[in-house]
């Protein structure tokens, strides 16, 4: 009787382990909620975009997709967190240009997104707005440049953090125009914009999703957009080109992409790729994004990886040529 009970226990343990292994195998993915990590605080461009697609992305995957904000250290807290997570598809990163900017700006970092991530897909692009505080005595780009020269090294600009998209795009603007301004980094686009609204800092290159309502309600001034054509959601705001600004060979739009820790199983990557494509083809999602001037731009992981590689190379040239360094 004892032997029979012992064998029964062993058999149950083996079957239980087999069932658990089956439940955790790539073929059963996903069988629990998925975390989509954002490297900046709530209210910024990446967070705003991610929240537009998580419901439909979860529906396409058959599991909830939960946003987890991990701001700090210019994005490195979140980036390292995702890079060192299990490559099982349950921890993903919603990234933006800052991922490439950081590699160009910090030359000796041990972090390498090309080696430590598997790119899942490129997902979207969106312009920025040159957002200016109401207490700044300028109503055009030309007036802003002239105003900055009356306050050498005193006019300041906010960014989402050192190495963020808003940081580099403002440096591109400075290089192209001779505008003088001192960098004040924040832990995300939301906090940065709050201080522009309050008049504590003069300007911020903000996502159009964040800036749109603030411009429309008169809480800030929008002097230019970084897209090639005027934005349909802010049609009265000129482009930088219309304002007479010729920028360097740097894409001044936000781009967004989804990444996973390196080593993700092929079957899991394929499921994620398909779910992203399905989500961005959803008419409701596309309408929602259009209202925020976000252009869906699905492309598979290999295209996203190549874009990131090219961006790191181009940004490195610009940063080195203009002597931009981390503060």
Description of the molecule:
The chain has 327 residues and is an alpha/beta fold. It folds into two domains: 32-125 and 253-322, 3-Layer(aba) Sandwich (D-Maltodextrin-Binding Protein, domain 2); 128-225, Periplasmic binding protein-like II (D-Maltodextrin-Binding Protein, domain 2), CATH 3.40.190.10. The protein is built from twelve helices and eleven strands. The protein has helices spanning 2-23, 45-61, 76-83, 98-105, 113-116, 141-150, 165-177, 189-197, 208-216, 266-281, 283-290, 301-322, and strands at 34-38, 65-69, 91-96, 117-126, 128-132, 156-159, 182-185, 203-207, 221-225, 254-261, 295-300. The strands form two sheets. It has a six-stranded mixed beta sheet with strand order 2-1-3-10-4-11, with helices on both faces. A five-stranded mixed beta sheet has the order 7-6-8-5-9. Strand 1, helix 2 (45-61) and strand 2 form a beta-alpha-beta unit. The longest helix has 22 residues, at 2-23. The chain is globular and about 65 Å long. The N and C termini lie far apart (74 Å). The model is unreliable at 10-23 (pLDDT under 50).
Quick take:
The chain has 327 residues and is an alpha/beta fold.
SSE diagram, text form:
Elements: H1 2-23, E1 34-38, H2 45-61, E2 65-69, H3 76-83, E3 91-96, H4 98-105, H5 113-116, E4 117-126, E5 128-132, H6 141-150, E6 156-159, H7 165-177, E7 182-185, H8 189-197, E8 203-207, H9 208-216, E9 221-225, E10 254-261, H10 266-281, H11 283-290, E11 295-300, H12 301-322
């Amino acid at each position: 009787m004892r032997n029979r009970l012992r064998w029964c226990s062993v058999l149950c343990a083996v079957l239980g382990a087999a069932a658990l292994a089956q439940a955790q195998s790539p073929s059963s993915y996903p069988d629990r909620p998925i975390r989509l990590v954002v490297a900046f605080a709530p209210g910024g461009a990446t967070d705003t975009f991610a929240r537009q697609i998580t419901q439909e992305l979860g529906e396409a995957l058959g599991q909830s997709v939960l946003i987890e904000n991990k701001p700090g250290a210019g994005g490195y807290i979140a980036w390292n967190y995702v890079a060192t997570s299990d490559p099982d598809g349950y921890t993903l990163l919603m990234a933006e240009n800052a991922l490439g900017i950081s590699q160009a700006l910090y030359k000796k970092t041990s972090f390498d997104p090309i080696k430590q991530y598997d790119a899942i897909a490129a997902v979207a692009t969106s312009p920025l707005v040159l957002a200016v505080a109401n207490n700044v005595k300028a109503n055009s780009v030309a007036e802003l440049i002239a105003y900055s020269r009356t306050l050498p090294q005193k006019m300041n600009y906010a960014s989402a953090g050192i190495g963020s998209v808003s940081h580099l795009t403002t440096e591109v603007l400075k290089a192209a125009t001779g505008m003088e301004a001192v960098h004040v980094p924040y832990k995300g686009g939301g906090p940065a914009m709050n201080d522009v609204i309050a008049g504590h800092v003069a300007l911020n290159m903000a996502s159009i999703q964040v800036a749109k309502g603030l411009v429309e309600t008169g809480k800030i001034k929008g002097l230019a957009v970084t897209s090639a054509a005027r934005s349909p959601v802010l049609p009265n705001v000129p482009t930088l080109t219309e304002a007479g600004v010729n920028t360097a060979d740097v894409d001044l739009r936000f781009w967004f992409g989804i990444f996973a820790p390196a080593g993700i199983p092929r079957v899991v990557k394929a499921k994620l790729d398909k779910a992203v494509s399905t989500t961005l083809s959803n008419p409701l999602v596309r309408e929602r994004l259009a209202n925020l001037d976000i252009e869906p731009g699905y492309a598979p992981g290999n295209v996203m990886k190549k874009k990131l590689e090219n961006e790191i190379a181009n940004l490195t040239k610009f940063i080195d040529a203009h002597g931009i360094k981390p503060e």
